Amino acid sequence: MDLKERIEQAKNIVFFGGAGVSTESGIPDFRSDNGLYKKKYRYSAEHMVSHSFFMQNPKEFYEFYFNQMIYPDAKPNKAHLALAHLENIGKCKAVITQNIDGLHQMAGSKHVFELHGSVHKNTCMHCHAHYDLHQTIEARDENGIPRCPKCGGIIKPDVVLYEEGLDQNVLYGAIQAIEQADMLIVGGTSLVVYPAAGLLDYFHGKDLVLINKSSTDRDGMADLVIHDAIGEVLSKAVF
């Protein structure tokens, strides 16, 4: 049975995706040859997106963050649009994403669990005022650090940095959605980052589908494995 047939038969689909979902929108992933972690900086990319680095070196953090992690002109691709369509017709009950770009919501998905937060949500560390991405970009001082217009405090993106824990409400919501699903489609993720990768263990439904350009350690447990670009695969299966 191919992916299209499985989707047609499913009643409660949950999608779990990683950086590979957004590469077709021009946003680089992390671990591929052209990925974020291969960029040459004075510090490793992992260290530069850690909580301790942010606290100790906000200028360098924001230089990296705004230059390498913010893509305000990115648009949803075929994968995002296919998933939004599946939600619109009542089949996809939730999207769980490790991405911080907000492209699923831009495509029209409403039930989205953002495990690692979003660049579109930003909060002043002092007075807790909230700002969107555009406001945060506009609020940068002469050192490139976004400052709260109300109190002058540093505006921190609501993204989960290394050394920070996931939002427990988001995590529990994602787990609950997976437990209730009869089909789990996992795409664009190498499944090496925990605790996110461990979410597969909560699935007890009928069809586990893995879509990724390269193989993963979980391929052996899937009912269907497709090594191809996720946008093309989902678009052909859905439309």
Looking at CATH, the homologous superfamily of one domain is TPP-binding domain
- Strands, total number: 9
CATH architecture of one domain: 3-Layer(aba) Sandwich
Lateral strand order in the biggest sheet: 3-2-1-7-8-9
In CATH, the topology of one domain is named Rossmann fold
Distance between the termini: 17 Å
Indicate the mean pLDDT.
94
| Radius of gyration based on Cα positions | 18 Å
Give the quaternary arrangement of the chains.
single chain
Structural class: alpha/beta
How do the SSEs run, as a string of H and E? HEHHHHEHEEEHEHEEEH
DSSP strand content: 15-25%
CATH uppermost class of one domain? Alpha Beta
Characterize the largest beta sheet: strand count, sense, and whether it forms a barrel. 6 strands, parallel
Task: Specify the overall morphology.
Answer: elongated
- Counting DSSP H or I runs of 4 or more residues, the number of helices is 9
Task: Provide the low-confidence segments as ranges.
Answer: none
Helical content band: 25-40%
GO cellular component, one term: cytoplasm
EC number: 2.3.1.286
Organism: Faecalicoccus pleomorphus
Cofactor: Zn(2+)
